[in-house]
Amino acid sequence: MSGQPIAFSSICPAGSTPYTVQPGDTLFFIAQRFGTTVNAILALNPQITNPSLIFPGQVLCVPSAAPPPPPITCPPGTTPYTVQPGDTLFFIAQRFGTTVSAILAANPQITNPSLIFPGQVLCVPSAPPPGICPPGSTAYTVQPGDTLFFIAQRFGTTVTAILALNPQITNPDLIFPGQVICVPSR
User: Fold this and answer.
1) Count of domains for the chain
2) Tens digit of each residue's pLDDT (9 = 90 or more) over 96-147
């Protein structure tokens, strides 16, 4: 051998489509995502000798009889979030200052709260809900690159004052684009 990786070219038969395995994927998760079964995927991929052993970057053929799911349109008061490897609903809820129950209510397609996938788009309620900021404050949606310090400067206030209005922020260094927070009004 020359030490080069072996190139695997996957030409999928009619009625199937190629899928590149992502970190965290299992055949069960892929089957659920595509509305098929593990056995149907195995039938299209005879190179899989151990169904428990697939690798990120591996290209599999999956049945494509079902049309792909429609793009996610999030309702007002929520923001779309793409699940990252290692995410759980609990971590996403913490990140956005909401609850797992609120995320589940906004995403009725989730039938098993322990089963979310990297690349899956969820609608995450923005905390606090619109119109819930106390008098003397206003809702602000965190933008990419924002920090509490920069937001405080922009609104002529302090980080401490912002934190007092947002008890859901447990780590002042951890805010995310799309997150809605209350800031003191000028």
Assistant:
1) 3
2) 777 788 888 888 888 888 888 777 888 888 655 555 788 888 888 888 889 9
The answer to whether residues 157 and 129 touch, using CB atoms and an 8 Å cutoff, is: no
Question: Would you state the structure tokens that stand for residue 6, as one six-digit string?
Answer: 């072996």
- Could you tell me if residue 71 is inside a domain? no
Contact 18, 50 (CB under 8 A): no
Q: Which domain holds residue 147?
A: 137-184
In a domain, 1, yes or no: no
**Angle at CA of residue 43, ends 42 and 48, nearest 5°:** 40
Residues contacting residue 118 through CB under 8 Å, at least 6 positions apart: 22, 23, 24, 25, 83, 84, 85, 87
d(CA 90, CA 184): 28
